[in-house]
């Protein structure tokens, strides 16, 4: 294990919590489009998003959407507060949200090949 940590194959050790038991029952996928593409804007946007504990995943995308966020929140009111906090701090062209009705598969495992 120590060798894998030194080689940065293992980057963290974590405890996985049950979000439902913590009252985090709503999963929201937020698609963001922006007309801003400067390094300064991205740096500010990334800082704002990193400071939002509700955001559990954050990606820069190709295609129609510029960024994709995954949030875990208690309910719609909690999402609305997070949304308002985000748009008050960052200029965004378009925000579209989709709410997960059911989580069918979720894993933190990576698809590792078995080496003989």
TrEMBL record:
Domain Transcription regulator AsnC/Lrp ligand binding: 30-103
Gene Ontology CC terms: cytosol
InterPro entries, alphabetized: Dimeric_a/b-barrel, Tscrpt_reg_AsnC-like, Tscrpt_reg_AsnC/Lrp_C
Coiled coil: none
A Pfam family: AsnC_trans_reg
Any one GO MF annotation of this record: sequence-specific DNA binding
One GO term of the biological process aspect: response to amino acid
Protein name according to UniProt: Transcription regulator AsnC/Lrp ligand binding domain-containing protein
């Amino acid at each position: 294990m120590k060798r894998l940590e030194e080689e940065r194959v293992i980057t963290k050790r974590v405890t996985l919590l049950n979000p439902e038991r913590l009252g985090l029952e709503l999963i929201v996928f937020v698609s963001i489009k922006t007309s801003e593409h400067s390094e300064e804007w991205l740096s500010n946007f990334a800082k704002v998003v990193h400071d939002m504990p509700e955001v559990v995943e954050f990606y820069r995308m190709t295609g129609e959407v510029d960024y994709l966020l995954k949030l875990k929140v208690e309910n719609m009111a909690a999402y609305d507060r997070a949304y308002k906090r985000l748009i008050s701090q960052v200029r965004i062209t378009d925000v579209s949200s989709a709410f997960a009705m059911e989580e069918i598969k979720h894993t933190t495992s990576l698809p590792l090949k078995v080496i003989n």
